[in-house]
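Preliminary data (for renewal application), TXE complex.
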Amino acid sequence: MLQLQNLINGQLVPPVAGHYLPLLEPATGQPFGQVPDSDAADVDAAVRAAEAALPAWRAAPAEERGRKLVRLAELIEQHLESLARAESQDNGKPLSLARSLDIPRAASNFAFFGTAAGHFATEAHVQEGVAVNYTVRHPLGVVACISPWNLPLYLFTWKIAPALAVGCCVVAKPSEVTPYTAFLLSELAQQAGLPPGVLNIVHGTGPGVGQALVEHPGIRAISFTGGTKTGEQIARSAAPRFKKLSLELGGKNPNLIFADCDLATAVQTSLRSSFANQGQICLCGSRILVERRIYEQFKTAFLAQVRALTVGDPLDETTRQGALVSEVHLQKVLSYIELAHQEGGRLLTGGHRVLLPGRCAGGYFLEPTVFENLGPACRVNQEEIFGPVVTLMPFDTEEEAVRWANGTEYGLSATLWTRDVTRAHRVAQQLHAGVVWVNTWLHRDLRTPFGGMKNSGVGREGGLEALRFFTEAQNVCIKL
Ligand code: TXE
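Predicted structure:
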């Protein structure tokens, strides 16, 4: 049976108290390993190792740090297949998706921030004849990176890479639901030559080791991705200790589809933005608002594609919908399907658990599901479901579409389909969303800031914003 371990001070070690949690495979419902159920003692050992490694790591030239991160990116690429299989086994996503999205983007994170560190400019201001002011951006020190289960290695590395690039040392905690690839990264980090203590990985539950990490006095900043409720809890714990926070939280993202759009592309991309990763991506477009005069046309074409999505064994190359991450999460999503019926929704396709034969008989599978006839204010259109469930709504005016799009507590992303470039700019800038895609979805340029508005988050990750987050600015003034 696979037994994962913590990475502390460059060594793979068991949890101090010797407690473990079971690792379940979502596609089968069967245990395939154990993960440490670490506690405050493990966190303390990790923070002390990070503190010991910090002086040399932060003093190293950015280019030297960067080379190790780029080496780690190369090792991830060399182990792409084994990492993709581990990701698929742990999370339930199709192997094809782990191979094409999750693992390549984890490598890109290290490659991008490994080179960005060398281009991390600062600023100076000259007061002619009086003084020169320049800004020094010092690494914060030992920081915590905490990530969710939906894109395990992708989001884990998305935080770790910029922190290491600017000279911080990291204590990282992956989700206890999908820790496998984070464990495999521990082994690659050692091969890449990261000095002991620079990167430490502790496994365990949120309320257990996660809370201990957030509260530890040696942690200067917390970069968190996960649910809005959890973000609230972390902010409450961090506030009295004046820790810097970056919170990437939930979403309830709208797709606005205008009649002048490229309909075939809008349908095809909406299929991905609705159901990729079984709808378990915070950036998924779960509310599809369609201009009334093409509503029936869009609906017919969209439903035909949804019904063609194969729900199956994630290891099968033809599978487009794998398993949801856990029985608990599957039941949560099924409860929202029941709620949609109660709120007057008309089920257009899906809506049922899928029982597969063979090795996947005990897996957590669900049909991709589409409802219509639900108003913008109902709970199904207000609350994050985080599964393969979307709603279709016809709108009559641009103003109505923008009002509905903005009408939730979230503001993470939005997708806009129109050929009218003036409308694209006008509507995009009215949307309360940290990321707006026009005629595309999930396109990422790592140089750009990423994050949500309203209850979707605080702070920005990605690009120079991420590097800046892990530093604190000092202004030096020289009198002339
Ligand atoms: O989140 P949880 P999950 C959101 C997505 C969904 C959620 C799903 O919208 O709501 O994440 O991921 C740890 N102190 N996003 O269920 O439960 C926990 O162990 C410290 C948004 O995993 O919040 C796990 O490692 N840590 C995002 C992590 O927090 C605690 C993109 C997340 O757990 C803790 C992806 C505590 N008290 C998913 N409690 C975006 N906006 O980009 C839990 N944890």
